[in-house]
C-alpha cells in the first residue's frame, strides 16, 4: 500500500469518526432539549403545588385562629394586650399576718 493510500484510508476513518461524533452530538443535544422541557414543566408544577400548599396552610391557620378547637369563647379578647406587674403577696383572710424575721 502506498503512502497516498494510507493517508486516504486515515482521512476516511477520521471523517467517519467526525460524522459519528456529530451524529451523537446532535442526539445528545435533542435529548438535552427534551430534558430542559421536562425540568421546566416540573419547575412550573412545583411552583403551582407550592402555591397551593401555602394557600391551604394559610387557610388552615386562619381557621385555627378564628375558631380554635375545643375552646369556649367568653367574649373577651384573648389575644389582646396583657399588662402584668409585680406586687407583694397578700395574706389570706384566715391567716395571721406574718411576723418579721430576725436575722443574725
Largest sheet: none
- Which stretches of 5+ consecutive residues score pLDDT under 50? none
Give the overall form.
Answer: rod-shaped
Order of helices and strands: H
Mean pLDDT: 81
Q: By helix and strand content, what is the structural category?
A: mainly alpha
**Number of DSSP helical runs:** 1
Rg estimate, integer Å: 41 Å
Organism: Hevea brasiliensis (Para rubber tree)
InterPro entries: TF_Kbox
Protein name: K-box domain-containing protein
Biased composition (Pro residues): 94-104
Keywords, separated by commas or semicolons:
rod-shaped; 0% strand; single chain; 104 residues; mainly alpha; 62% helix
Can you give a write-up of this model?
With 104 residues, the protein is mostly helical. The protein has one helix and no strands. The mean pLDDT is 81.
Chain-wise SSE layout:
Blueprint (H helix, E strand, L loop, with lengths): L2 H64 L38
Short characterization:
By secondary structure, the protein is mainly alpha-helical. Helices cover 62% and strands 0% of the residues.
Amino acid at each position: 500500500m502506498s503512502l497516498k493510500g494510507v493517508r486516504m484510508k486515515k482521512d476516511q476513518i477520521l471523517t467517519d469518526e467526525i460524522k459519528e461524533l456529530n451524529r451523537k452530538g446532535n442526539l445528545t443535544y435533542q435529548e438535552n432539549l427534551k430534558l430542559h422541557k421536562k425540568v421546566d414543566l416540573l419547575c412550573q408544577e412545583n411552583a403551582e403545588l407550592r402555591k397551593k400548599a401555602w394557600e391551604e396552610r394559610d387557610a388552615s391557620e386562619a381557621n385555627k385562629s378564628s375558631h380554635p378547637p375545643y375552646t369556649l369563647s367568653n367574649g373577651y379578647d384573648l389575644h389582646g394586650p396583657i399588662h402584668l406587674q409585680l406586687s407583694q403577696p397578700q395574706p389570706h383572710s384566715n391567716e395571721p399576718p406574718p411576723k418579721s424575721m430576725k436575722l443574725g
